[in-house]
Design goal:
Uridine Diphospho-n-acetylenolpyruvylglucosamine Reductase, domain 1, alpha+beta, globular, 346 residues, Uridine Diphospho-n-acetylenolpyruvylglucosamine Reductase, domain 3, 11 helices
């Protein structure tokens, strides 16, 4: 039986695999070992393979939040676990989704099935399993607000665990998983979506788009369509031009820091997030430094959204990273603000 399992695991593992099609930046890098994980059984089999046991491991979802700057001398675990289940639970619909499902496709499917709640997060690239890692958010909604629990496989202990919101330690584009890379693999995510739905349309862009469409009482599909339209106007399609969406987090500063910056830069864009803290628009900071549209070889700052770095064709991860560091430097010099990258840099 052990021999049979080992043979099955070897069938799942490939050697020297290009990762260019597995990252939305479209940069070339190679994995020494590569395994597609379509089930918990696949994962268990791969992890006991002698070649994988002591090798570095990298969990990869949709590849939309990673920048490869080198080859990976270990095993890439590509999560393709499917599935969707729903049950009504009091005031909420509990929706459990396999970690390998495409995020946007699931959001649209739920809207079509009259299970709203995630529509503000439409068109965010990546997989469902990657969404809690980043605690994705857009247009007034964060994943943590719709989160119930998730199942994760502890690679060290070999145990399947269920984590709640507190366990995940969600923060702004942050979670416990970002601080413990490689220790856990998310198998499925369960969302708690309110059955008594109310639209979240307080974001100016969403309000303007709905007004443009002459919609005063939006339904879930209206909000979904508005968000998709906004994102398509502002952000490049990774299928056409390599990118990972917003490359930098919006920095958070104290009220005093914001006041001092406003005195010097009256048009600074910021948002009150409570507790005497303000979120600054990183795109505004970059644009104010004259970096919007900047081209450095085969990498560039997107001309329509300064938060986005793009691969113009054939760029290496090192070229993209060099541009990112230049952006950080000019913002630090002018504003005294340190921009933090969103994608994981490998």
């Amino acid at each position: 039986m052990v021999i049979a399992q080992d043979l099955m695991a070897r069938d799942l593992i490939q050697r020297d695999v290009s990762l260019r099609t597995f990252n939305t930046f479209g940069v070339e890098a190679r994995a020494a070992l590569f395994a597609r994980i379509g089930s918990l059984r696949d994962l268990q089999q791969v992890l006991v393979d002698p070649r994988v046991i002591d090798a570095p491991r990298l969990v990869l979802g949709g590849g939309s939040n990673i920048l490869f700057t080198r080859n990976f001398d270990g095993c890439v675990l590509k999560v393709d676990i499917p599935g969707l289940q729903r049950e009504d639970h009091g005031a909420f619909s509990l929706v459990s989704v396999g970690a390998g499902e495409n995020w946007h496709a699931i959001v649209e499917r739920l809207v079509d099935d009259d299970v709203p709640g995630l529509e503000n997060l439409a068109l965010i690239p990546g997989s469902v399993g990657a969404a809690p890692i980043q605690n994705i958010g857009a247009y007034g909604v964060e994943l943590a607000e719709r989160f119930h629990s998730l199942q994760t496989w502890s690679i060290d202990s070999g145990l399947l665990q269920t984590l709640n919101s507190e366990d995940c330690r969600f923060g702004y584009r942050d979670s416990v998983f970002k601080h413990e890379p490689g220790l856990r693999l998310i198998v499925s995510v369960t969302f708690a979506l309110p059955r008594d739905w109310n639209p979240v349309t307080g974001y100016v862009d969403v309000e303007n788009e709905l007004r443009r469409r002459q919609i005063t009482k939006p339904k879930p599909r209206d909000v979904f369509d508005a968000v998709v339209a906004i994102r398509k106007r502002k952000l490049p399609d990774p299928a056409l031009i390599g990118n990972a969406g917003s490359f930098f987090k919006n920095p958070v500063v104290s009220r005093q820091q914001r006041t001092e910056l406003i005195e010097r830069h009256p048009s600074l864009v910021s948002y009150d997030i409570g507790g005497g803290r303000y979120k600054l628009a990183a795109g505004w900071l970059i644009d104010a430094c004259g970096m919007k549209g900047a081209v450095r070889g085969r990498a560039a700052v997107f001309e329509r959204q300064a938060l986005v770095l793009v691969n113009l064709g054939g760029a290496t991860g090192a070229e993209v990273l060099a541009l990112a560091r230049e952006v950080q430097d000019v913002v630090r010099v002018r504003f005294g603000i340190e921009l933090e990258p969103e994608p994981r840099i490998v």
